[in-house]
Amino acid sequence: MSGEAGEHHEVVVVGAGISGIAAAIGLREAGVSDVVILEKAETYGGTWRANTYPGCACDVPSGLYSYSFAPKTDWSRLFAGQPEILAYVDDVARRHGLEAITRFGVEMTNAAWDADADRWRLETSAGPVSARFLVAAAGPWDTPRIPDLPGLADFPGEVFHSARWNHDYDLTGKRVAVIGTGASAVQFVPEIQPLVSELHLFQRTAHWVLPKADHPVPGVEKWALRRLPLACRALASAEYGLMELVGLAFHRPKPLMHALMGVARAHLRASVRDPELRDKLTPRYLLGCKRILFSNSYLPALTRPNVAVHATAVEKVAGATVTGTDGSEAEVDAIILGTGFRILDMPVAGLVRGADGRSLAEHWSGSPEAYLGTMVAGFPNAFIVLGPSLGSGHTSAFTIAEAQVRLIVQAVGRARQDGATIAVRPDAQRAYVDRVQAALPGTAYTLSSCHSYYVDDNGRNSFSWPWSTGELVRRVGRFRPRDFVLTPARALT
Question: What domains appear along the chain, each with residue ranges and CATH number?
């Protein structure tokens, strides 16, 4: 990027992960040639670039974890690992020519709508740039959540988050505390357990863990998927149907979610023989209230002699000692944070300012909301990919992003056709948000009270989609002209 004042593009996409790549390809294939991607890192991949912790893998079947316009039929495992997913995403971006339009190492630090010029003014680490349309595709799994623990900053040993794994630090023979027991910890704990001398797992809340039907894909299956399109479609349909059954359990918890809880309980009994430890690892809430975890190795790892499960939150760190709220202590050499991401208070929300000069974060006041998870009233010509209320416990992020991109392409096309700016009507946004919130009660997301990242600072579920994947694709991917206001663009006229 030149950094010269006045550099202008028709579309600027912020982020080169799954959603940013989908947006750039979709817009270019729709005839929008002047698209540029700003990516703060040095390569593609987003969360799959950042998360390199041991054991990192997908928990959606590989057959569903690819772009519909670039299906991958030769996954090595039923649930692909991080290196393979990253290689696939990078390959798709480069095969579609995105390398020529991607500015690596460039971070957006501010974006403001200029009503006089009908364009977005961006400040970046490489200088100013403007755009007619802005697509925020940084994603909800971008910024790690670091707990505000007394004494953590003064810990004399090594501290890192699972999304910023320190591969230069040798864990062999070390005493390690793991804080957090979510999706990342379930994957990396079994990998590091054989290496460390002591592993102290601080578990604020027990999680339901289902067995993971993972296995290497045999050569004959790869051959069939590569050579026989019908076999590929049949497998994808079967995997989709299975995941939709899980989705149905979320939306109709009785009796389906209770049946899945039976599977999880049997998995726990088979993996953990010690009744005291098993009691610590038994959740007290309905399956689905938190993210469902899949692993065959996590629970057995916790039974090993060098592992201690502290069924408590962490109260403080004093010197090399980690202390739980129940008073239990562990003296350790390293602390690994498996504390997840800032899902609902996305940092990008504080950087983007709309027509009234207020940021997205100020508009939301702790409860993110967007029309179809994609557009926010008061932010003309701006779009969010993987935005609020589109989260699912069973759907591929590729499916969600592609549905949103179809909406974005239609909205941008209409604005270009009319020589106008486009904004969602406030009443259309309010009606949509109200429908989502009205549909959530009775689902597993809200049926049982538990502390999860689905719930925002105001106690509202601003993350979850309350209907099926098919309904998401139909609703989100369809442009409804009546829901938008098109204003002749003064700069263009």
Answer: 8-143+342-488 (3.50.50.60), 144-204+299-333 (3.50.50.60)
Q: CB of 108 within 8 A of CB of 38?
A: yes
- C-alpha neighbours within 13 Å on the C-beta side of residue 380: 23
Q: Which long-range contacts (CB under 8 A, 24 or more apart) does 30-36 make?
A: 30/409, 30/412, 30/413, 31/413, 32/412, 32/416, 34/9, 34/10, 35/9, 35/10, 35/11, 35/101, 36/9, 36/11, 36/12, 36/101, 36/102, 36/103, 36/129, 36/131
Strands 293-294 and 209-210: parallel
Pairing verdict, β 329-331 and 321-324: antiparallel
Residue 491: pLDDT band (50, 70, 90) is low
Question: CA 125 → CA 20, 146, 176, 352, distances in Å?
Answer: 19, 24, 37, 15
Count of C-beta atoms within a 10 Å radius of residue 286: 20
CB atoms under 10 Å from CB of 131, counted, come to: 25
Per the omega criterion (within 30 degrees of 0), is the bond before 255 cis? yes
Count the neighbouring beta carbons within 10 Å of the beta carbon of residue 100.
7
Distance of CA 280 to the CA centre of its chain: 28
Query: Each residue of 396-431: pLDDT tens digit?
Result: 999 999 999 999 999 999 999 999 999 999 999 999
Select from 312, 467, 492, 325 the least CA-distant residue to 403: 467
Contact (CB, 8 A) for 107 and 38: yes
Burial class (CB in 10 A: 0-12, 13-18, 19+), 44: buried
As a whole-number percent, the residues of the chain with pLDDT over 70 amount to 94
- Could you tell me if 412 and 133 are in contact, meaning their C-beta atoms sit under 8 angstroms apart? yes
- Give tens-digit pLDDT for 131-169: 999 999 998 888 899 999 999 999 999 999 999 999 999
